[in-house]
Amino acid sequence: MADLTTYRDAVSDGLARELRRDPSVVLLGEDIGAAGGVFKTTVGLFEEFGADRVWDTPISEQAIMGAAMGAAMTGMRPVAEIMFSDFLACCWDYLANEIPKARYMTGGQVSVPMVVRTANGGGLGFGAQHSQSVENWAFTVPGLKIVAPSTPADVVGLMASAIRSDDPVVFFEHKGLFASKGEAAPPEHVVPLGEARVARPGDDVTVVALAATVPLALAAAEQLVEDGISVEVIDLRCLVPLDMATVLGSLERTSRLVVVEENPYQGGWGATVASIVADEGFELLDAPVRRVAGENVPLPFADALEERVIPTTGKLVEAVRRLASY
Amino acid sequence: MTQEAGSATRVATATLLDWLEQMAVIRGTEKAAHDLFMRGLVKGTTHLAAGHEAIAVGASAALRPDDYVFATYRGHHHAIARGASPEGCLAELMQRSTGVCRAKGGSMHLTRADHGMLGSYAIVGAHLPMANGAAWSARLRGTSQVAVAFFGDGATNIGAFHEALNLAAVWKLAVVFVCENNRYMEYTPIASVTSVPNPAADRAAANGMPGVLVDGNDVVAVHEAMATAVDRARAGDGPTVLEALTYRHFGHSRTDPATYRPAAEVEEWLARDPLILARRRLAEWGVPQADVDAVEARAADTVAAASRAAQDAPPADPEDAFTDVWADGGWAWRT
């Protein structure tokens, strides 16, 4: 049995590996230095790399993003932390208008090799302004690469690719996964951007998942064994580049697709997956495409209410059962 | 507290003649842009900087070639002052493949990155934090480069301005924040929506840095004030806010006739045209009129040749819409 580690520790491990490897990597964000990050995802980095590599900032999301962008344009590889992904709205100009467009609108004169790390998602009872899954916000903007790992090893491997990418990457760390455990990443572990992973092979129904909906889908697949339904779980890992080849390849065998996504049904990334399948894989399907997504309401506080509106194993099991019997 | 900068320094005659020529090239390019627009050859919009030339030329003259400049959608003057050719700028405005941004940026995004002019940004205030980043990067790389953000008076009431000033001071960054205060945001006077008389310079003290007012139409004064701020930044003593008072000769953008400005005010400022002030100073220094005429004629020739070449350039290639989204040159979003 390989060593187990937490998703939380994998974040600091992934950052530390790149900080050691490349002197142009530098971190900035609120409380990431001596405090080790509010989610304890940068613990030990300030001590190992010092104040010249790990920079505490004021609560100024625009200043953080702008500083990262300006540094990225001039030879550094900054990794900016935006504490909660909800706060991306405070600096949305940089993700919507500045960072993804600088290369294009200058005719290729500048590069912006930076990473924005942010804690995404619900399930912890933080209420409407600290619980959203907003990966679909970034997905509306051409020019951003989008990563959302589901396992500790992928956190490390995808972090390496994100930081080494010459393009801007938004790196969504799921709050609900920080305490989860998995195999530790081996030395020099690199996972390329845009390669989905078959997290569990199966024959009857394809479930496409991302980040926290991956373990949810794996739990559902386990339950569905009792029903005699064999579920293939695909962990997309990235929304951009989007690996639809793996999804379409799976549908050639299963002919049935459920997408499980935590962002809201309205405007959620599953709609794009479904749209591509409708365009390019219509004849592979024996049943409608189903989406198990966040409900179109703000995230409520109470556990019972929150559970009602975000994807759960039970909701996915139900959706797969109905689809399998279609 | 806010200080006022003078123009005590006597620069060399040849230097001022050179600055006059640069200002005349910028003025001529802006007039050409306007005329080409009226002939239907420039599309979209333009935000002309005629009247602001002394700020771009005086400030750039205080910079090293490897320093960084970030400008706004009213940025033609900064692009040219940092080495973008008038031909490349006019070609960009006319959607030609030879444009400085290969016709993918347009008037509001002129850039010459290989000269440290890292772009013109059209979301008000967004580039001030970027200038911090460039200065931070220079510190980390140990290069002693300085970063400059040029912005309008309207940017001084947006959050990014205040966030940028604070962080620049806290991190003691080598940044100079240069406000081109032309008295009007777009159509509304900045004074009517701002809590202090000098919208940029008066905010400096609250962020622990010098705030300096300078006559933005006097290229010698701008250069001197900028040189002081740049020296301070390069020495590691931190950022400065420089507020340069000026006036635009055109409206906010192509569609604005600027009828909201009192005639007497316009007249007063046109009499203080930066080119007139430079010519007057040269005359005071006893420089022969023929020398002044010669540089202005050369500037006119430069602009005329640039305009002709830009008009003759091939149009943008539609396939170029699918280049340079990513660093590999392409646009693929799927694997």
Care to describe what's here?
- Chain A: Keywords: Oxidoreductase, Thiamine pyrophosphate.
- Chain A: It holds the Pfam family Transket_pyr.
- Chain A: Its cofactor is thiamine diphosphate.
- The complex is a heterodimer of chains A (326) and B (335).
- By secondary structure, chain A is of the alpha/beta class.
- Chain A has 2 domains: 4-183, Thiamin diphosphate (ThDP)-binding fold, Pyr/PP domains (Rossmann fold); 197-324, Rossmann fold.
- Helices cover 35% and strands 21% of the residues of chain A.
- Chain A has helices spanning 7-21, 45-49, 61-72, 92-98, 102-105, 135-139, 152-164, 213-224, 244-254, 269-280, 303-309, 313-324, and strands at residues 4-6, 25-29, 54-56, 77-84, 115-120, 145-147, 169-174, 181-183, 197-200, 205-209, 231-235, 238-240, 257-264, 290-294.
- A 7-stranded mixed beta sheet of chain A has the order 3-2-4-5-7-6-12, with helices on both faces.
- In chain A, α1 (7-21) runs parallel beside α7 and α8 (213-224) packs across α12 (313-324).
- Chain A is globular and about 60 Å long.
- Chain A starts with a strand and ends with a helix.
- The model of chain A has no long low-confidence stretch (mean pLDDT 97).
- With 335 residues, chain B is α/β, with parallel strands linked by helices.
- Chain B has one domain: 3-Layer(aba) Sandwich (Rossmann fold), CATH 3.40.50.
- Helices cover 41% and strands 11% of the residues of chain B.
- Chain B has 11 helices and 7 strands.
- Chain B has a 7-stranded parallel beta sheet with strand order 1-6-7-5-4-2-3, sandwiched between helices.
- In chain B, α2 (53-60) crosses α8, α4 (86-93) packs across α11 (289-312) and α5 packs parallel to α6.
- The termini of chain B are far apart.
- The mean pLDDT of chain B is 96.
- Classes of the chains: A alpha/beta (326), B alpha/beta (335).
- Chains A and B meet through α3, α4 and α5 of A and β3, α5 and α6 of B.
